[in-house]
Amino acid sequence: MQQSVQAIGMAWFEEDDYEAFRSVLPDRNWHATFGEWEAAANKGFERLKHQGVRAIKAKARSADFVAWCRHTGRDVNTQALLDFANEAAYREIVGDH
Questions:
Q1: Most distant CA pair in the chain: distance in Å?
Q2: What is the DSSP letter of 77?
Q3: Confidence class of residue 4 from pLDDT cuts 50, 70 and 90?
Q4: Is residue 11 part of a domain?
Q5: CA distances (Å), origin 46, targets 3, 19, 21, 61, 67
Q6: Alpha-carbon distance 28 to 26, whole Å?
Q7: Would you say residue 74 lies in a domain?
Q8: pLDDT over 50 at 78, yes or no
Q9: Chain mean position to CA 83
Q10: Are the beta carbons of 33 and 62 closer than 8 angstroms?
Q11: Has residue 77 been placed in a domain?
Q12: pTM here?
């Protein structure tokens, strides 16, 4: 019997790509700077860990995300970004075995 592992992927941006992501998803509620986003993201990541959630930092590059949306037939939006991050988390879990 296989044990189920619950995890959540958090889209993890890189400083040099943050502004590009902001232009790709203009309707998303963004922090004004990468530094502000990073501080808030780290707090959220730690909060999830303390709640017992397996949170995974899913490295996200804007060009890769847009290509993934096109490949999967998805609209480029915040929900797709969540799915992109969760798919990356799943791949990391599967790779653990």
A1: 47
A2: S
A3: low
A4: yes
A5: 24, 24, 23, 22, 30
A6: 6
A7: yes
A8: yes
A9: 8
A10: no
A11: yes
A12: 0.85
Q: Would you state the structure tokens that stand for residue 51, as one six-digit string? A: 């709640």
Question: Would you state the structure tokens that stand for residue 62, as one six-digit string?
Answer: 């804007």
- Report yes or no: 97 and 9 within 8 Å, Cβ to Cβ: no
Q: Give the structural domain span for 66.
A: 7-95
Question: How many other CB atoms are found less than 10 A from the CB of residue 58?
Answer: 21
Work out the burial of residue 54: count CB atoms within 10 Å of its CB; fewer than 13 is exposed, 13-18 middle, 19 or more buried: middle
Count of structural domains within the chain: 1
2 belongs to a structural domain:
no
Q: Express each pLDDT in 19-53 by its tens digit.
A: 999 999 998 999 999 999 999 999 999 999 999 98
Which regions of 14-53 does DSSP assign to beta strands (E)? none
- C-alpha dihedral (93, 18, 21, 61), degrees to nearest 10: -40
- Pick from 33, 92, 27, 95: nearest CA to 58: 92
In degrees and rounded to multiples of 5, residue 69 shows phi and psi of -60, -45
Which amino acid belongs to residue 39?
A
Rounded Cα–Cα distance for residues 43 and 55 (Å): 12
